[in-house]
Fold:
Amino acid sequence: MAVLEILTYPDERLKQEATPVGAIDDEVRTFIADLEETMDAGPGGVGIAAPQVGRFQRIVIVDCSKTRKPVPNHGRLFLINPEITQWDGMVVGREGCMSVPDYTGNVIRAEAVTLKALDLDGNEQEYHCEGFEARAIQHEMDHLDGMLFLDRLVSRRNDLFKRKVYQKK
Amino acid sequence: MSHWYMLTLVGKDRPGIVAHVSAALFDGGCNLGEASMMRLGGNFTIMLMVEYEGNKKGLDDMLEPVADSMGLHRHIDRIDAELHHHLEPDVRITVYGADRAGIVARITGALAEAGLHILDMESSVAGTEQKPIYIMQIEGHAAEGIEALQSALDIVTSDGIEAQLESIETLIG
Structure:
């Protein structure tokens, strides 16, 4: 087990696209344990993506179970090769990133997402997430495509999407 | 040894002011820090952190031609630059109502007593000349909790002033 070094922008590797995980073997699981330890060592992070520690594979951990104000959540999610299959609604929220110290900004995200991902045993799981957890998943999955929240900033001053426009299907 | 200065420029707004001023500062060997430019009632206003090797007089002399050519008043203060230590807001307050004197003093006075540290504030006078409305957006840190701010707002917003308060949950990922 080890706490890994977190890459910080302007490290160009953060702009690199990650490749899918092939076999989920012991080496991958050991890495995920280190990634988890790194997330837990960070200040208040609700998620981490493998590219943030310089490993360019499609692996994300999200945990919204310990937020200051409780939010709906699935506990600790280990998402391997995640794919969002449905986006619903739009909402603005404030985001920061362990890879972008000392800055936060407003970002528009889907209010709810449905996704598929492999778990640690390689079984495909489906999740429906909303609100803060949905935001965390979208933020972390952006890292897999070389995207930072800086690429999605909207005005700090005008909250165009302040009211939820989430529509139930 | 370089120093940080806060440069304030105010004048009638027109396109190109930021470009001209920043070019003059760059040509004069300055580095820029954080800045906030706003158009207030048709006036150009900017506050701009400038890092410069020389003294205040040198910076003032450098700026004189561009400021005069663009009709800008200038003011320079030597400052401490506490970069890389942003305070994060955890509450956002929006206030609006028919414009009249005293709204800001009453609302912000009550909020300050309830522990609010304002980090960002913007206000506009909108509506028409006959029926002006005042709109204010504040972001800040609630040192004594958000409930204390809500209680304070409930007391001071009884007569025609609308105020909404919401917490800002910043996601760190």
Notes: The domain at 3-79 of chain B is CATH 3.30.70.260 (Alpha-Beta Plaits). DSSP finds four helices and nine strands in chain B. The two ends of chain B are 38 Å apart (CA to CA). The longest strand of chain B covers residues 116-127.
